[in-house]
Amino acid sequence: MTIEKEELEYTSKTVRSRALYDEALAVMPGGNSRTTTFFDPYPFYVERGQGAHVWDADGVDRLDFNGNYTSLVLGHAPLEVVKAVQQVAEHGLSFPGPTEHEIRLAEQLTRRIPSLETVRFTNSGTEATMNAVRLARASTGRPKIAKFEGAFHGTHDWVMVSVTPDPKSAGGARRPKPVAASAGVPPAVLKHVVVLPWNDAEACAAILEREGSSLAAVLVDPLLGIGGIIPPADGFLARLRELTERHGILLIFDEVISFRVAMGGAQERFGVRPDLTTLGKIIGGGLPVGAFGGRRDIMDFYDPRRGGARISQGGTFNANPVTMAAGLATLNALTPDAYARLDALGDRLRGGVTRLLEGTRRRGQVSGVGSLFCLHWTSAKLSDYRSSRPKDGDAPTRVFLGLLNEGILLSQRGMGACSLAMGEEDVDRFVNALARVLARG
Q1: Residue range 364-407, pLDDT digits in tens
Q2: At residue 146, what are phi and psi to the nearest 5 degrees?
Q3: What is the residue-wise DSSP string for 121-139?
Q4: pTM to 2 decimal places
Q5: Which ranges in the chain are annotated with CATH 3.40.640.10?
Q6: What CATH homologous superfamily does 3-73+336-439 map to?
């Protein structure tokens, strides 16, 4: 089926969403406040969510493998999180001062992540990486940062570089050129951001040797999330750790997404200890959240005692008690057994998709770690952002719309996640739905 036919079927099922979209266009550019949730011809409007399902304004039920972009690890409206939120909200929604809830979530995080000696909270992953970058510059006295091509770390200027660049304008694969990922990113930013190639340790070593004396930090998503949940090659992160230590560069792990792959996140799973870590998504239990932390001597730049902090960090809703309680309830539910179940669901889904694609001889594959996965419409060996780009540019959209019409919600680029609200039958339903979409494609 063509994209046009998938769109026609979609619009026939979402008449009320279309009406709401038309109303939204009158008061918001593009009709909403999240560019990532927009798609042609218009996004459906969510009415409610429960467990592994969401229902739209037209009453259409969809099995949710998006999970608000991987943040709902327990599924929608889990009872323990809802109760925690209700109990705290009854006593007030926010205050001009700290609460005990902040301490308890910080304790839980520092127990789970040994490298997180101390931590501070923000309201988003974007704010977390922004603070971590500022902290790295302050503690090293160096101006530049390095990030990987195909990695997303939020929407502040310093990381809106080479997120999804066209390789034709991004330089060579072993020495990528910084490319602005948005209008409004000043040219000066590109002069202070060094771009690294994922999974090429020798190329990274050469670049860090050349730029090391001016680099404050290397910022890395351990799974290259936007590049397609592409795991690091054996030894790659350890080599990166060795290189950064040699050149006096701070290593920052962005675990906003990857924290859901183990009790202690990707750094536990791959056995590498960064200097700083940024967090978000699941640690807020479905509410807005971010956090950053790491070595105590570095984080002390934020200590306001003895004459004031060297770095000030405000935020009216930082460590909001309702969010802290929701996050703590979520982490309490993420036991070793829960992670084992998430891993099993992810393995079952990836195995089912792989057998489907091999059986139908489709040009495609699936990647991922733990409960995270991503569909790729290329037969090239997946190693980095460039290798993950689809050979058929329309394939991700066609599959995304086709799955919507089959009652399955995924991200537009093909990334998804299993939640603890799911069972094996839900994973099998995904694979069967994908088979029907591909059969008519």
Answers
A1: 999 999 999 999 999 999 999 999 999 888 999 999 999 999 99
A2: -120, 145
A3: EESSHHHHHHHHHHHHHHH
A4: 0.97
A5: 79-333
A6: Aspartate Aminotransferase, domain 1 (3.90.1150.10)
